[in-house]
Amino acid sequence: xxxxxxxxxxxxxxxxxxxxxxxxxxxxxxxxxxxxxxxxxxxxxxxxxxxxxxxxxxxxxxxxxxxxxxxxxxxxxxxxxxxxxxxxxxxxxxxxxxxxxxxxxxxxxxxxxxxxxxxxxxxxxxxxxxxxxxxxxxxxxxxxxxxxxxxxxxxxxxxxxxxxxxxxxxxxxxxxxxxxxxxxxxxxxxxxxxxxxxxxxxxxxxxxxxxxxxxxxxxxxxxxxxxxxxxxxxxxxxxxxxxxxxxxxxxxxxxxxxxxxxxxxxxxxxxxxxxxxxxxxxxxxxxxxxxxxxxxxxxxxxxxxxxxxxxxxxxxxxxxxxxxxxxxxxxxxxxxxxxxxxxxxxxxxxxxxxxxxxxxxxxxxxxxxxxxxxxxxxxxxxxxxxxxxxxxxxxxx
Length: 397
Fold this sequence. Notes:
single chain, about 400 residues, mainly alpha, 2 domains, about 0% strand, globular
């Protein structure tokens, strides 16, 4: 577990710290805008598999090959449709060739990453976290070595994108062959009706994850429109630290989701919430106090506004940690439709407020809105749990 977290820190944090230092604010923003855009698009390919597939496998491990086979073919159909739509859009809008090339590189990179993570999910569903951990650690270390080596040799953002693509391709090969070796492949044919049924079942999960990420990252798109590449560079520099600080929420959720999916247990739920609260409080307080030194050490000159952003984001981190158990329980108890509705509501609020605040308050306005909408989402989950599941507040801690 510790090695997994450390490797994710290297691949999701340190790489971007080095990139920000090497490229500078403006060029870092020019890379991070399409990088963010592509990671939003690829959520259509992810389609909620990280939650629903793990749950299905944990409930019926004897059918793991069949479950994964149907989900995989569904994922391929969705991926094909996404590529057709994106390429048609790029062709019809006559965008800059360099931008189109960079976007396509990053899109292929993100696709490999999505399929790589997909083949790790079955291990999580049957509690083989050690195997998933080995695959993740190795892949993250390879990514760190390849991308950082490229950054030390060149400042060309296309070459940097190619290095990301290569590392994600290796991740895909490792995860696929590890899955195949452990579980094998299903020889049963999958008919089209099964694919459409799977799409229908997974749709609420896709809505939740897709829109959840959209409300967490859509502000970058609005910032690019009103503030430009420099604003994107500063905001994403701060957001990279937030992403790293939230890695532990993903680990906690992955550990407790299979257990909560089988049967609600007050003891486990309390443990999950207490663990999340302790980590959230510790990380947010340290980030608020040390925002200045952290920014200076990681980014150097030109990133001074990041210090103020981190103080605002320290509240966001605490709120996200406190909501980890709430969101995980809602998904585990087949209330994904209500979770999706909550996220849609929050997304609408987020977009409206960002269009109101960013033109006047810039990146600081976007940060404040992120804090507010995250708190709103937690309150929505709380209402769903107490009203629909009839779980008392005394069962939380």
